[in-house]
Amino acid sequence: MKIIRKAIYNGVEVQSEELVITTEILNNWLLNRIVVPQFKDNDELMRFITAINLLIEPVSGGVIGPVGFFYNQDLEPIQSLGEIAISTNNGNSYIVTLDKFNMWDEDQPEGNSSLRDYLQDERNETLQLEGYSSWSPDSKNSDGAYSYSSIAVDTFIPFISHFYLNQNNKSELEWFEISTMKRISITDDIDDYWCFIA
Q1: Omega of the bond prior to 109 within 30 degrees of 0, cis?
Q2: Rounded-to-integer distance, Cα 59 and Cα 164, Å
Q3: Percent of the chain, pLDDT > 70?
């Protein structure tokens, strides 16, 4: 499974290069706080990522998605995708409703608010990554791992974009005109969204 980012830039539809999703990437994204299951198919994987991302996605701003799976082309929710059980590495399990709630809505399901609070808890972490989204490590340990203070799980797109750039020693994602797949340079901030591709 992969994701791409899409946007309209100077009147032309563009997309980013494809970003591959792996178990390693999911574990790093979730700061090893969540048990990443063995997915039986792409639908389970998409539901898992979507459920968690919707919990911590900003109410406004950020890169909206997944379009075509949860959001429509107008970036409005299509419909609830039901429920999913998500287990944490501390032994807890939560039933999460795959729908968009205001982060501070007291009427949202208990599983959603409890898991969101767990993911957004800023605490010290030791990671094998020399960068986590916009966070930089406080120090490098003798075993090669990196120590971070007051870090929380970031939304999916900032994390996977930074991860991909760091792993490939790049400074920016490559973008292409969708109609020709010709590479273009994007120098401005763009309002983009993301979607899954097989």
Answers
A1: no
A2: 25
A3: 97
CA nearest neighbour of 7 among 177, 170, 161: 177
Has residue 164 been placed in a domain? Answer: no
Note down the domain range covering 109. Answer: 2-123+175-197
pTM higher than 0.90, yes or no?
yes
Q: Which of 148, 109, 104, 107 is nearest to 126 (CA)?
A: 148
Residue 130 falls within a domain, yes or no? Answer: no
Q: What is the mean pLDDT of the chain?
A: 93
Residue 26 lies in a domain: yes
Name the H helices within the chain. Answer: 23-29, 42-56, 110-119, 156-167
Number of domains the chain contains: 1
- Does residue 156 belong to any structural domain of this protein? no
